[in-house]
Amino acid sequence: MKNPKKFAELSPDQQEVAALAALGAVSPREAMAAARFAILEMEEAAALLAAAVPPVPPSPPVRERLLKRVAAFEHIRPIADVRRDENTWIHSGMPGVDVKMLFKEAGLGRTTYLVRMEPGARLPRHHHGDIEQCLVLEGDIRWGDIVYEKGDFVAMGKDTHHPEIYSVRGNLLLLISGHNDFAR
Questions:
Q1: What is the topology classification, in CATH, of domain 90-182?
Q2: pLDDT tens across the length of the chain (184 residues)
Q3: Which of 42, 152, 158, 178 could bridge to 22 as Cys pair (CB 3.0-4.6 Å)?
């Protein structure tokens, strides 16, 4: 341990969260709240422990079962697999708007993604280069007098123009969209 005194200053709960974060056993939000130096120390300790244990080959029946499970998974392997606890949100460049790409259909140029808007966040007016589908998973989305809330679905046609969009309470949206040109 590089700095045992600093580590000892953490409460037992903080040490536990750091250990769990090092093993990937807490949410990204919990990991971000933990002391970064402590997580790094725990990751290093876990790596040293793992390297110290000699590999043990599985017994033939266990090996056979594992290989069958791998073969079954390869047969039905999804072309996209994004888990809820993966912290792959990125800032969109627009204040209060983050996106998480779920799937991109390269041949069609269409993308499925989540959009998360903070209360009061805005998306500028834009042109839809393809059909855009939107399902409101949480919160609200608005333009003009039109309001969509949790559970509402809207699809915009190709070559349509969307006015500025905003959210009063914040939201989480599922979008399936082709290319959009934003006017800033």
A1: Jelly Rolls (2.60.120)
A2: 676 777 788 888 888 888 888 888 877 777 777 888 888 888 888 889 888 989 889 899 999 998 888 888 777 777 777 887 776 789 988 999 999 989 888 777 788 999 999 999 999 988 888 889 999 999 999 998 999 999 999 999 988 888 999 999 999 999 998 876 654 4
A3: 42
CA 20 to centroid of chain Cα atoms: 19
The DSSP output letter for 159 is T
Instruction: List, in sequence order, every beta strand (DSSP E) within the chain.
Output: 90-91, 97-105, 110-117, 122-123, 126-128, 132-143, 146-149, 153-156, 161-162, 165-166, 171-177, 180-182
Model confidence, pTM:
0.59
Domain ranges of the chain: 1-78, 90-182
Rounded CA gap, 21 and 17, in Å? 6
Q: Which residues contact 71 (CB under 8 A, 6 or more apart)?
A: none
